[in-house]
Design a protein that fits this description.
Number of helices: 21
Oligomer: single chain
Helix content: 25-40%
Structural class: mainly alpha
Number of strands: 4
Radius of gyration: 33 Å
Order of helices and strands: HHEEHHHHHHHHEEHHHHHHHHHHH
Bound molecules: heme C
Strand order of the largest sheet: 1-2
Largest sheet: 2 strands, antiparallel
Length: 587
């Protein structure tokens, strides 16, 4: 028995020693070490360790506890310049001012740098651990937080140059055409970024721009060519990080009632080619920032044939001549009027003079290629960027197009549909990005192109013949299982059609019939057709005959399977269902 007591006693003593050691360690935290070092460097006597804390009020009546200066003890001391981190004097925030207007003794550090102000351990304080919503903002990126106190919506604030460069880029690089930031833009085809800084870390924002697909599968956010310029990306990310709905600033808490000059965005009131050129290029017009940026996505050729611009959308050298002013204006304001799944931004903020200016600029693009080009040269000039070098429909411009350009390397496709190609090239395929060429290419040139496409696809030695069947007529005997007896066909019934559609088609074409079913992205190129794309379905070329053929026999050279197990009546019902969704009267 006695022996056991002794063991307990020893254990209790050991426990006490461990506890004491950990208490001692807790007291002698990093900040103590830093503070000792600091006074040593100053040549002063160490007055004893002290937690330096600032409490900053937030508009909601809350309090931010800021203990950063427990380690960063010399931030406000001009004599600590040149000390090692974290003891040094704070570098100038507003260069050119004699004494920085910001008093760290009152506002602390978190208000500009984020991090976890309560923590006293290095990694915790800097917020560099998983789950902390606001990791440290280092260097100029801290400008994201200037608008917690200063009104930054317009005008300029000394010391916030990176932030302001970001805002300018947001306008110049066409981001505004897809994303809303309250007070800046009003488009709704992409997530609103009014609270981007509240929701996302700086790193997430940078990544979303560098590799949009990193966080979202099948991202419709374009990857821009300039995106690898580090300055540019950090400027936009800093600007976006600064977009926060809940800021310290409020009518009472704004420390300086900072009043800014009115917005300096250029609005064009007199149309001109020059104004159009600035909007297209996203360059300042008459000295002030303009909302623009077509050139980030669209290339064009000068009269000498030099190509400049991005390859996210089609080259626009020929567009105005092919499409005319009205189509182009409509497309700028709302591309989805013409192409249901277009990712082209919605530039509905433009006024008439601005639209007119852009169109007038496009009109100046008058490059003419030689009339005597052979098939390959014609293809390389006009078609290559979308349909690709190997005619596989994977040109540089293809990734952001929906539907994708045709894959002509598939012999089955070319051999089955060659007869319609000439019309498709002349008039375009309505409802898709396939442009019209009627005013640029002669019939002879179009024939040359069709022959070229055919010849290239023959490289694939497989043979394939599609046996078409005529669209059955009401009253015809229904095509049934061979054992069953035929009954006469009646006009297609959309409700019956919906039922059959749900049974056989939703896996690929989706519940909404928009081509985005659960299997859509598992298929190889191309995606299932968007069956509520009115523009596509209402063109003359896409008549009931074509729908019947495509459903019964599948689309050769694509994943659209044959459905020859369905009766004619079922197919007519499905066609009626598709038509009911896409007639002009339907919503
Ligand atoms: C435990 C001591 C400690 C605390 C608490 C602390 N820091 Fe630091 N800080 C350091 C040290 C040490 C460095 C230099 C080494 C480094 O970069 O990690 C540093 C560096 C920094 C830097 C420069 C980073 C760089 O990469 O150049 C910033 C900015 C900074 N701290 C801000 C803060 C803010 C804001 C807080 C409060 C939320 C804070 N620190 C709290 C110790 C601390
Ligand atoms: C009013 C906003 C603001 C406050 C408050 C502020 N900083 Fe900074 N800080 C900045 C800016 C902006 C920079 C970048 C200056 C530059 O290099 O252009 C910076 C730079 C620094 C640096 C140099 C390393 C780096 O990130 O470039 C450190 C370290 C630092 N701050 C720490 C602190 C600490 C600690 C506090 C609190 C005592 C604090 N800051 C308070 C805005 C602020
Ligand atoms: C916590 C609130 C707060 C934050 C955050 C803040 N400031 Fe200030 N700022 C102030 C206060 C307070 C003054 C002093 C006003 C005065 O002296 O009347 C000031 C003054 C200024 C001034 C000089 C006065 C003027 O209006 O020209 C400039 C420039 C400035 N800040 C730039 C910045 C920059 C750049 C940032 C971001 C890196 C920033 N501020 C972040 C509160 C803040
Ligand atoms: C063609 C329209 C379009 C344009 C132009 C565009 N974006 Fe996006 N962006 C999107 C879409 C759509 C998303 C939604 C997620 C996705 O599909 O990737 C997105 C996502 C983002 C995100 C991530 C937001 C989130 O909720 O995850 C950021 C940040 C972003 N965009 C910034 C920008 C910036 C900066 C620009 C200008 C350089 C820009 N975007 C231009 C369409 C666009
Ligand atoms: C984010 C990239 C992007 C930006 C910025 C952009 N577009 Fe587009 N644009 C596209 C894509 C993709 C298409 C193809 C799909 C479609 O037809 O909508 C397109 C198509 C077009 C078309 C139709 C071409 C045709 O023959 O069918 C016109 C005209 C056009 N854009 C003009 C403009 C103008 C003018 C601007 C600037 C105000 C602009 N775009 C800005 C991506 C963009
Ligand atoms: C802006 C991108 C783009 C350019 C440039 C382009 N196409 Fe297309 N093309 C498409 C798309 C998208 C489709 C798919 C239409 C669809 O889904 O039915 C397509 C489809 C076609 C088809 C098949 C039409 C059908 O009836 O099935 C032919 C043929 C064709 N393109 C030929 C050409 C030729 C020849 C050129 C050059 C003179 C050209 N395309 C330039 C995007 C483009
Ligand atoms: C395995 C997936 C899959 C299933 C199941 C499927 N489709 Fe498709 N469908 C596709 C793909 C992929 C395309 C695009 C082919 C193209 O671009 O021509 C397509 C295209 C179409 C087209 C357009 C054809 C044309 O001539 O342009 C119609 C109409 C259509 N499908 C109807 C249906 C109907 C109705 C059903 C159900 C009976 C169905 N599909 C089932 C994948 C599928």
């Amino acid at each position: 028995m006695i022996k056991d007591y002794r063991i307990l006693l020893v254990l209790a003593f050991a426990g006490l020693v461990f506890f004491g050691m950990s208490m001692y360690k807790a007291l002698d935290q990093d900040f103590t070490k830093h503070q000792k070092e600091y006074y040593k460097l100053l040549g002063e006597e160490f007055p004893g360790a002290e937690i330096k804390q600032v409490n900053v009020k937030t508009p909601g009546g809350g309090m931010v506890v800021d203990r950063c200066q427990s380690c960063h003890i010399g931030a406000s001391n001009p004599d600590a310049v040149g000390f090692e981190a974290p003891l040094a004097t704070h570098p100038p925030i507003v260069t050119g001012t004699e004494k920085d207007p910001h008093e760290f003794g009152k506002m602390g550090c978190v208000v500009c740098h984020d991090g976890n102000g309560r923590a006293l351990d290095l990694h915790d304080a800097h917020g560099e651990y998983h789950g902390w919503p606001a990791p440290l903002l280092v260097g100029e990126v801290a400008q994201a937080n200037c608008n917690r106190c200063h009104a930054m919506e317009s005008g300029s604030l000394a010391g916030a140059e990176l932030y302001e460069k970001g805002r300018t880029l947001f306008l110049e690089k066409a981001c505004w055409g897809c994303h809303t930031i309250a007070g800046i833009s009003s488009s709704s085809q992409a997530p609103e970024l009014t609270d981007a800084g509240g929701k996302f870390t700086y790193e997430y924002l940078v990544e979303s721009m560098l590799v949009p697909s990193a966080n979202i599968d099948h991202s419709k956010m374009p990857t821009f060519a300039w995106i690898h310029e580090e300055d540019t990306v950090s400027a936009i990310a800093t600007y976006l990080k600064g977009q926060q709905k809940t800021r310290l600033r409020s009518s009472e808490s704004a420390p300086i009632g900072y009043i800014k000059p009115a917005s300096e965005l250029a609005r064009i009131t007199e149309p001109s080619v020059e104004a159009g050129r600035s909007l297209f290029a996203g360059t300042p017009f008459e000295g002030s920032v303009a909302k623009g940026g077509c050139v980030n996505c669209h290339a064009f050729r000068t009269s000498d044939g030099d190509v400049a611009g991005g390859n996210i959308g089609p080259e626009l050298t020929w567009t105005l001549r092919n499409r005319g002013r009205t189509f182009v204006k409509e497309h700028i304001v709302n591309a989805r009027l013409h192409v249901a799944d277009s990712i082209m931004p919605t530039f509905k903020d433009y006024n008439d003079a601005e639209l007119e200016s852009i169109v007038s600029f496009l009109e100046t693009l008058d490059y003419k290629a030689s009339a005597k080009l052979d098939g390959q040269a014609l293809y390389d000039t006009y078609c290559w960027a979308c349909h690709g070098e190997n005619l596989d429909g994977r040109g540089d411009v293809a990734p952001m197009l929906d539907p994708l350009p045709r894959d002509f390397s598939k012999y089955q496709f070319v051999s089955s549909y060659e007869t319609r190609f000439k019309d498709s090239i002349r008039d375009g395929v309505t409802g898709t990005a396939m442009p019209t060429w009627k005013n640029i290419l002669s019939d002879e040139q179009i024939d040359t192109l069709v022959a070229f496409i055919k010849e290239q696809s023959l490289a694939d030695t497989k043979t394939f013949t599609r046996i078409d069947r005529a669209l059955p007529k009401v009253g015809d005997p229904e095509r049934l299982d061979y054992k069953q007896k035929g009954t006469a066909l009646v006009a297609g019934d959309p409700d019956q059609g919906l039922e059959s559609y749900q049974k056989f088609c939703t896996s690929c074409h989706g519940k909404l019939a928009n081509g985005k079913g659960p299997n859509a992205y598992l298929l190889e190129h191309p995606l299932p057709r968007n069956l509520i794309n009115k523009e596509f379905l209402n063109q003359t070329a896409v008549d009931d005959d074509r729908l019947y053929q495509s459903i019964l026999l599948g689309v050769a050279g694509t994943p659209m399977p044959a459905h020859d197990h369905l009766t004619d009546q079922t197919i007519l019902d499905i066609i009626a269902f598709i038509r009911a969704n896409t007639t002009e009267e339907s919503k």
